[in-house]
Amino acid sequence: MSVIKKFRIKSFKKQHAVISFQKVSITFGKRIVLDEINFNINQGEIFGMLGPNGVGKSTIFNLITGLIKPDSGKIIIENSDVTSLPISLRTTKFGIGYCPQYSGYFHNLSVLENLKAVGEILIKDEKDRKSKVDELIGDFELENTLDLKAKNLSGGQKKKLAISLSLIGNPKILLLDEPFAALDILSISNLQQIIVGLQTRSNITVIVCDHQARDLLSCVDIAIVLSNSKVITKGTPSEITSDELAKSSYFGQKFKIN
Ligand SMILES: Nc1ncnc2c1ncn2[C@@H]1O[C@H](COP(=O)(O)OP(=O)(O)OP(=O)(O)O)[C@@H](O)[C@H]1O
Ligand SMILES: [Mg+2]
What is the SS3 string spanning 72-99? Predict the structure, then answer.
């Protein structure tokens, strides 16, 4: 396994669950996408979600932010039942940053204008705002794209912009929907370091899904695998990749993390 994650926190048992899904179900038309799923995400954990296309990973992010509501079951954030709390209250109350699978920026604004616009919404103090924007420009190597309209960026540059925007408000809970998609090899490694650095320095909780399973598993503490509307396994990267059900439904028999 790559050395991105130098250590994994072995036990989160003494810490509290920051997000809890309790028997959450959602159906679109006749299709049951999530069927009474349960899982806890602990404070400060880097939590991965894996599963085939269309299994419901982005739907889980939408349920956490409040973009959609479950048909049944409860979503608990920081001990509060937020199942019917609107998106605006959830994101501000719990400090949720969200990088969606697609878009996540203003298409007709330049990179710098995007950063300034979101910064103005989330950071009141002008000096703090400027220093955060400068920090993100450096972290995500956006210096050469500042004047370009977001719609004209390359796929990977767009992703970097969307991820940096999700970090402007110094979130306590960060949701990353396929952050590695479209990034080049060095940028993936840079993002892995940033994610692990956020956990180490600020103890923020990160929930991340991606189809780059190796890249994802080299920076998470715990991951779940979803299949056929259910969570079929939860554990450390080595536990889930040796799980027979996860192998037959998602990883295949030849997948290895190192
Ligand atoms: N608003 C909606 N209306 C109807 N169907 C929806 C809606 N949102 C999601 N779906 C369906 O729910 C299923 C799960 O979608 P979701 O986007 O959560 O999958 P995913 O696991 O993120 O997939 P991918 O890996 O391709 O991104 C899909 O079959 C999708 O078509
Ligand atoms: Mg998705």
Answer: EEEEEECCEECCCCCHHHHHHHHCEEEE
